[in-house]
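Forum > Structural Biology > Help requests

Title: Can anyone predict the 3D structure of ABC transporter substrate-binding protein?

Hi all, first post here. I have the sequence for ABC transporter substrate-binding protein but no way to get a structure on my laptop. I'd be grateful if someone could post the structure tokens.
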Amino acid sequence: MSGKFIRPLAISSALVLTMGLAACGSDSGGGSDSTATVDCSAFSTYGDLSGTTVSVYTAIVSPEADPYIESFQAFEQCTGATIDYQGDKAFSEQVSLRVQGGNAPDIAFVPQPGLVQTLVASGRAVAAPAETEANVDRYFSEDWKTYGTVDGTFYAAPVGASVKSLVWYSPTAFADAGYEVPTTWAEMMDLTAKIASDHNDGLTKPWCVGFGDGAATGWVGTDWIEDVMLRTTDGPTYDKWVTHEIPFNDATVVNAFETTGKILRDDNYVNGGLGDRKTISTTAFTDAGLPILDGTCYMHRQASFYGNSWPEGTEVGPDGTIWAFYLPAVDPDVAKPIIGGGDFALAFSDRPEVQAFQTYLASADWANERARATTAGGAVSANSGLDTALLTNEVDKLSVELLTDDHALFRFDGSDLMPSAVGAGTFWTAMVDWTTTDVTSQEVTDQVERSWPA
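Reply #1:
Sure, ran it for you. Structure tokens for ABC transporter substrate-binding protein below:
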């Protein structure tokens, strides 16, 4: 990401409330009048905050920011506080500078747990109040609370979430071929073998994959390994791998590569409509799933955001042209591992209005206000109090269903938590080498292990 400073977008949602309600039918991603039927009795515990302002700093800018701004209106209307929303594309570079320079926002939406830890280590962040922690205990799993906790103290409440553990497919193509959506890893591998057997034209394959993304080529491959690592080991082992408590070339990691390789390194299984496995790294990740539309590929593993990558006019949904299923666990009755991401609300002030707003962000009330305001998709949350009937986007509904499942085992994208020299460096290049050459899983994990910073 460029280090060029981009002027933050500073918007008071109170201003949006007074000027924008007439435009509630716009296509900006918001569009519902979230305050029209609000019951202010739900806000009584926050007290009268009239005349106060809470600054919120995030990487989310307009138009994606618009539903967030709208979702704050009920809090403003019922408490009297003003939320000063500041969206900045350069957030990742600027937030630490602002904190160190004594210009910290009241609350920052932090997209990585590692950055939460860094900001807490600055000594400027403040622990979340008991009310915020109580909401997190009530509405979120322990996995999510752990990511907002540093050295045993809870600081940051989960805000948004994303799911990476999805497989995109064509319900029509599956039905026409008599294929059923697999519910276990073994069933998925059996289906993979059957598709390959049913189509021996050298063009149609079970899977289509693309790692290409310019200088970031390879990150898609790390997501594959992370998903498989969490399925072939367990949460604690995954955590030790990410933090280097076990080496990158540990036997469990090598096994994850070998398990993944049964798909990605088999030319009978990849790369549908595109070629053999050597085309994986030269295929743009945005285009990799498209062969599903012409019937030369049946499955494409990619995150929930990929729902927006299909050509205009593609119907995405359970009964549509394209839909997605959960990348199966080995034994879903024991655990349903999910790799994903999310944002956390970290505070740098303990003023009453700041604590009240942080508590609101951890509530079911805000999760539902955000869902009402987000008409174009992107309101995913792991908050169990979210009313999924408010979600208008089918991918959002699927993601929330997975995140709030009683057997869900959630972990953040591992490469995002590793040192950047590895997670955004040698791990990426290793995936390219591993899919384009005959390097072994042991050799490629040894290669990454040697690169780990001392």
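The domain at 166-326+418-451 is CATH 3.40.190.10 (D-Maltodextrin-Binding Protein; domain 2). Confidence is low (pLDDT under 50) at residues 1-35.
Shout if anything looks off.
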